Amino acid sequence: MSEGILPYVYDFSRMHSIEKAQSCLEQGDVVRVTGELSDLFKRFYPEITACENDYVMILTQSCDLVRSSNRKPKADYITVCIIRKFSQYIDQDMLTKRLNPKILDSKKIVLEGVYNSLLDKLIKLINNSESKAHFFLPKNPPFEADMVALLSLPLPFRVDKYALFLDNKVLSLKAEFQAKIGNILAQMYGRVATSDLTDYGYSLSDIQQRVIDELDKLNLSSAPSDECIKYLQKNLKKTLWPDEQVKELMIEFTAIEKEKAFLSEKQKVTKRFKEQLFHLIRTPTLLNELKNCENDKELRTKINLYINNK
């Protein structure tokens, strides 16, 4: 089991400076949806499942949110997006809606190619390197789990609710990641040079293992072929330990496939041997030479020489 991802995207120095942190909202700020703010969501966006103690991210540009005693924000609206648990995003948005895995007891099975493609996408998401619609937020109080901001689902509120959002701000992002979000929202082609997890001591295998652990929690496994999935569907029985049974059936299927491959190769070798034997029988001179061989080694040597020269 891998350890959690470091909270590498957050700017704790700004949050620890209460006066500075509370002066203005900024792009990328995380806001807790609670109390009056929760009522606001239920009133204007009843179809959005933003419940008490859910979170949203500020999407409006920081420059349009600056305010002071003699200056109002430029923006007429504060735009936010919903933040969801990383595991919930994988299960609902990736698995259920897109991949449609085969359900075997409590296990979800997809082909190895599909699994590896999902793994690659989630590694890039965790690294915040190439995603065009999401932003990964590592577990850090008040988050009790890794989270994902759904940037493609903007929800505007009138700017007169500014103080309400500001009072409920719980986290801020580093400037480079604020720029990253701005870059995604502007749909620019250039990549903002944000630091990667590898800059924080993580190897690619560390990140990969973190994603694998998350997929394991969702009971997702891969199979090498459709034939393997059909074999699992046929032989998997209801059990309290589906993980172990799937592993055993995978091993069993692999053994069967290897046996089939061996028998196929054996048939090819047997056919070739018969063809060569037919040529031997039709070559009297060679047969006489073989009769005069003193031992098996000499016999095999002459046969191999003949075969290799054919």
Quick structural overview:
The protein is an alpha+beta fold. 48% of the residues lie in helices and 16% in strands. It is built from 12 helices and 9 strands.
Shape: elongated
Strand percentage: 15-25%
Report the order of strands and helices.
HHEHEEHEEHEEHEHHEHHHH
The total beta strand count reads 9
Low-confidence stretches: 188-193
- The averaged pLDDT comes out at 80
Percent helix? 40-55%
List the total number of helices. 12
Cα-atom radius of gyration: 31 Å
Distance between the termini: 58 Å
Largest sheet: 6 strands, antiparallel
Give the strand line-up of the largest sheet.
6-7-3-2-1-8
Label the structural class.
alpha+beta
Number of domains: 2
Walkthrough of the structure:
Helix content is about 50%, strand content about 15%. It is of the alpha+beta class and about 300 residues long. The chain folds into two domains: about 10-225, no CATH class; about 240-310, no CATH class. It has helices spanning about 10-15, 20, 35-45, 85-100, 110-125, 160-165, 175-185, 205-215, 225-235, 240-280, 285-290, 295-310; strands at about 30-35, 55-60, 75-85, 100-105, 105-110, 135, 145-160, 170, 220-225. The strands form two sheets. It has a six-stranded antiparallel β-sheet. A three-stranded mixed β-sheet has the order 4-5-9. The longest helix has about 40 residues, at about 240-280. A hairpin with a 2-residue loop joins β4 (about 100-105) and β5 (about 105-110).
